Amino acid sequence: MKQIAVTVNGTRHEAEVEPRQLLVYFLREQLRLTGTNVGCDTSSCGSCTVLLDGESVKSCTLLAVQADGHEVTTIEGLADGDTYHPMQQAFHEHHALQCGFCTPGMVLAAVSYLKENPKPTEAEVRLALEGNLCRCTGYHNIVKAILAASGAEA
Amino acid sequence: MTAVGQSVLRKEDAKLLTGQGTYVDNLHPAGTVFVSIVRSPYAHARINGIDVSAAAAADGVVGVYTGADLESLWSGGLPCFWPVSDDIKLVKHLPLATDRARYAGDGVAVVVAETRVAAKDAAELVQVDYEPIPSVTDVEAAVADGAPLVHDDAPGNQAYTWELVTGDVDKVFADAAVTVKERYRQQRLIPTAMEPRGVLCEVNAAGDVTVITSTQGPHIMRTAYTLVLGIPEAKIRVIAPDVGGGFGSKLDVYAEDMIVIGLARKLGRPVKWTEERSEANVATIHGRDVIQEIELAATAEGKITGVRTRLRAAMGAYLQAVTPGVPLLGAWLYAGCYDVQAYDFHCTGVFTNTTPTDAYRGAGRPEATYAIERAIGALARQVGKSAVEIRRLNFIDSFPADIASGLQIDSGDYHAALDKGLEVLGYDAVLAEQADRRAANDRKQLGIGFSTYVEMCGLAPSRILGALRYGAGGWESLSVRVLPTGTVQVMSGTTPHGQGHATTFSQIVADRLGVEVSDVEFLSGDTAVVPTGMDTYGSRSLPVGGVALYHASEKVVAKAREIAAHQLEVAADDLDYEAGRFSVKGSPDKGMHVKEAAYVAWTAHNLPDGMEPGLEATYVYDPPNFSWPSGCHIAVVEVDTETGDVQLARYVAVDDIGNVINPMIVDGQVHGGIAQGVAQALWEEAVYDEDGNLLTGSLLNYLVPSAAELPSYELDRTVTPSPTNPLGVKGVGETGTIASTPAVVNAVLDALEPFGVTDIDMPTSPERVWRAIQEAKR
Amino acid sequence: MIPAEFEYEVAGSVDEAIELLGSREDAKLLAGGHSLIPAMKLRIARPGTLVDIGRIAGLSYVREDGDGIAIGALTRHQDVATSELLREHCGIVAHTAGEIGDPQVRHRGTIGGSVSHGDPASDLPGVLLTLDAELVATGPGGERRIAAADFFTGVFETALGPQDVLTEIRVPSLGGAGWAYLKFSRRAQDWATVGVAAVASNGGAKVGLVSMGATPLRASAVEQALASGADAAAAAEHADEGAEPSSDVAGSADYRRHLVRVLTRRALEQALSG
User: Fold this and answer.
1) What is the pLDDT of residues B598-647, one digit of tens each?
2) A69 and A91, same structural domain?
3) Of A92, A95, A101, which is closest to B668 when you measure between CB atoms?
4) Is C2–B642 a contact, with Cβ atoms under 8 angstroms apart?
5) Which of A143, A35, A140, A95 has its CA nearest to residue B10?
């Protein structure tokens, strides 16, 4: 077992983990933050996307020990109290979610992307989502929501 | 303003956007043990022995069980609810194989451990003595002489035969000036709901069984659990919590549920199983996998007179819940939206050493639509007509329409949808660009593909289901309860997994009862809260469940009217009703709202003689007909004629789904459906190697597309309200998937027309496109 | 999707990593983990010990060094892709790093991890081979430079010894030379069905191929044809000479042979027009 300290959604957590504990299971099973979902086992689907020091990563492809000393933001930590993050608000207003399973990962991937490219084109948004799969929406409204959140014309 | 027809934002979103979803794997009662299943790596193998000793001795292991160990837990095999014919072979399907594994992924043993990790580690230690035997995964190879038998009691691997013949087909074909005969392959697909399956079972000291499972069908599951496990149905509570997509794959009755429930009862502890994705690709049902032959008889000008269809449909290794019935769901549709006189459909179900197939979004109807929408293209080529001309010549154009296959289409206007599709597309401009590129011999050629479809959904009239030997009815049960303070509960037998029932159904009730959408609480997915229902599949929630809700609301209004009349001391007929308020004719200021009537009904201090207290009603609605959405989808593709790469450049969808309750949600259903159908046309394919190993066992190689591969879609609608229900609605959950696949493949073929290519298999991968061009050049 | 058990050690320095590699049974280096962890989750890879070098300071950089550019092995794909220095002087490396995986992968995956994994379908190795890049490895015997041509030795095999740590990747400054990297894949996130790198050089071009054999390859026959005066289209017809592509669900060997000729022609047209 290894001792780690990870700041998750602003709260510092010290914990013992097995080295093989994946960050996603550390979040889900040790911290009981179940908003981060597991949709595949090949780092393909992006459902498990969280922010590590503000950047999108697939938490199924990080060991919890690798997050030691870092800051993690999960979907639970994105809103400001009862006020949605603008990306959550845009997803709501543009019907960018149906079953909701890919949604936390999509939202966080989008939040991370707009930091890198605040005014993207539609084509850029689509390419930025290459690592996040959704089976319900056909992506149409997800792309619209992200463009809206960026202030660009949808 | 009425709520119906408005794009009301979803009530469902708040918890899902903030990480508060209740997907099964998020739930973790104290003391839960985890299950890991040992699966056959062989497509076909005798199981000569299983040594569980090393696994049983591993850290954290609670127990290790083989199929033989658990056989006594289940009174029978997994059920098939749709024995379609007399000749069907209802082969035994145990949750864990005991003597023979019949596909790669067939479960043979199960490990229970204190943690997910311990279960996984120990599963590797189970030693199974397999004796591989010859296998067959291809549907045509399976019916060839001498093919290995998947089941010894199903000679020729034939599961069943089924036919539907009307009119004098032979004569129509003999008299035809023109015939075309085509052969298509519906590749095998993997549904891939983003949430893999999961099931969690708790049993209390009284023997009450609570099953929380990622399902589309909690009520069907409750019945199935009783059938397989022998637990009295009344002792079982099934909860479908938040479910992360289904697309048919979570309608099925699965081995893992039976294993988990059986073990929870045996061990007296909560037991949980969560599917991994690479496990899902073998253990959750697959879709399609059908070889289709379709022949059209037509006049010299291209008017279709007869359709003859022959299917060989893969069942996989076993018959799951409705596996044999899937082809039947398309059996009436092989003439599409075209007026024909004679109709002949014949299907053979075939066992193969593969994951069982079952209903996957569209179920039978995408196959039928693909066949006729491609075949009409072949006919157009033969008679020298354009894709648009041939369709206009053949459209059914008066409604209701009795079609040759024997059912009645409720309503439609196929010319109007095609007109609108062409308009949205700007057909002439696209044709001109296509002509320019052809003239310039451009590397990238444009193709325009049409799919004018009709489908039958809103499953289904119970009498028809009975005639087809389906094991259940097609009704739906909805209840409305007005609470004393005026808020409203809806108890729905159809349960959502992303479709937005809570919002849409609230809109329907809000208008009937004159309350706000936010005053309505939608309850579903728990058999203890909603004891009766037929669940969610076949685009039935609105055209069956929504209509039941309408009628239940009307019953509430009728009772409220009696209460209001009594309170206001007038005859019930002397009340007008608008927006929830009854008012006395001629004295509109004198009146009572439904909410007030609810309070009166609750106190019951002064009700009409003989009236039951309370203001609530249930309506069980059995639809008199299917619902028949239709429309015109047009795909524009750009094909790189050197690499074979196909890019979907534009996609226009004009759908007629009757009246629309929530346009935003309807559009979302269409978007998702289109993406799934396009994915079949361009990317997705489950591939087995010659030994029966699934080569597309993960999302690395089973190509579910991302946003980067798809365009935005251009949607529009025409509206012909369905006359068969008071809301005038039709189903919309599957239209996009049904319509889009042939539109895209027709577009690819259109792009390749200058090369003389007239056929290509799906998915139209770059390699297939390249090969088609090479072969046409020879 | 849980890795099998392993020991985990954090290396504070390259020397410490070398020592840990030598003293532990079946030890593997962990950098970003985006090649290794996916394989471990499927239990295809089962190292006894992971030596985490991800925290070693000073191995993440892109800097001018002599007439070339030195890239620290722990530089993430994202930082390679967005490096102004690379964009200006060796744009093909920055561009190619942006083609790897998806944004999340690029936020974690490192150039050193990707290169030392030796995956023949990986984009950067083919580009480094084309550039005649040098790979700097540090082992028990000290530091050595390995030419890219000698580095990739087989499927998931490289010239790195069991105790070697790849520390730096050195690429040339291209000046104004034209270049192209064309990656052909079914989906944006997928590995290359075929990839072709081309860099204009001495009136001709250097050409490298991805997913056309057990290692990244130089298309020597193409380069020779160009040197002999062939135009792009004629030279590209030689692109599959000596290649031994495999057949898999992404494409048959025959298709890859065809595709590599088309992509080579296009890459040459692009590189030579710059």
Assistant:
1) 999 999 999 999 999 999 999 999 999 999 999 999 999 999 999 999 99
2) no
3) A95
4) no
5) A95
